[in-house]
């Protein structure tokens, strides 16, 4: 009888570790699949209004957590710059950024308030508790096409 106890405890330990590791992954992460250093900024709507934050510096072939813990918003906005080659990962949503580390309230009148304006890409997390964005060297096609079949 006593020989079964270690297995029972191990089973409980393994289940607890699964819950703990699932909880630890609840965050917004950005992974840089390029070989270059990139600077990343994030935007989101807080209770007090729009906020943009940056810069996170992410080395090539590595990831960083921008928001820790379960996500409280459905939509997040991302802008990134390749620090070496000058490329950008941008989108149509204009928000404020600064040259140095920043946390900016509001997205209007960026220039008048002494900031720059950049186009952020929207990410709909579907209200999931965690999300990951992967930055790659591949540029999206000019006119993306949907492939596949529509068989019932």
Describe this structure in words.
- The protein has one helix at 5-24; strands at residues 27-32, 38-46, 49-58, 62-68, 75-82, 88-89, 93-97, 102-105, 116-124, 131-135.
- By secondary structure, it is mainly β.
- It has a domain at 39-135.
- The strands form 2 sheets. Strands 2, 3, 5, 6, 7, 8 and 9 form a 7-stranded antiparallel sheet that branches. It has a 3-stranded mixed sheet with strand order 4-1-10, with no helix packed on it.
- Strand 2 and strand 3 (49-58) form a beta hairpin.
- Mean pLDDT is 79; it is low at 1-24 and 140-152.
The residue fraction in helices comes out at 10-25%
Q: Strand-residue fraction? A: 35-45%
Query: How do the helices and strands follow one another from N- to C-terminus?
Result: HEEEEEEEEEE
Parts with pLDDT < 50 across at least 5 consecutive residues? 1-24, 140-152
Alpha carbon gap, first and last residue: 56 Å
Structural class call reads mainly beta
In angstroms, what is the radius of gyration? 20 Å
Shape: globular
Number of strands: 10
- Whole-number mean pLDDT: 79
- Can you count the helices? 1
- Give a quick account of the main beta sheet: strands, pairing sense, barrel closure: 7 strands, antiparallel
């Amino acid at each position: 009888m006593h020989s079964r106890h270690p297995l029972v405890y191990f089973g409980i330990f393994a289940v607890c570790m699964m819950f703990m590791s699932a909880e630890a992954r609840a965050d917004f992460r950005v992974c840089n699949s390029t070989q270059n250093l990139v600077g990343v900024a994030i935007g989101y709507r807080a209770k007090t209004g729009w906020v943009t934050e940056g810069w996170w510096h992410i080395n090539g072939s590595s990831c960083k957590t921008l928001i820790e813990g379960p996500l409280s918003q459905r939509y997040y906005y991302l802008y990134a710059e390749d620090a070496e080659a000058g490329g950008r990962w941008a989108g149509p949503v204009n928000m404020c950024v600064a040259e140095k580390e920043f946390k900016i309230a509001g997205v209007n009148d960026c220039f008048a308030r002494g900031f720059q304006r950049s186009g952020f890409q929207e990410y709909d997390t579907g209200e999931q508790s965690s999300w990951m964005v992967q930055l790659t060297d591949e540029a999206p096609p000019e006119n993306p096409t949907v492939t596949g079949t529509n068989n019932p």
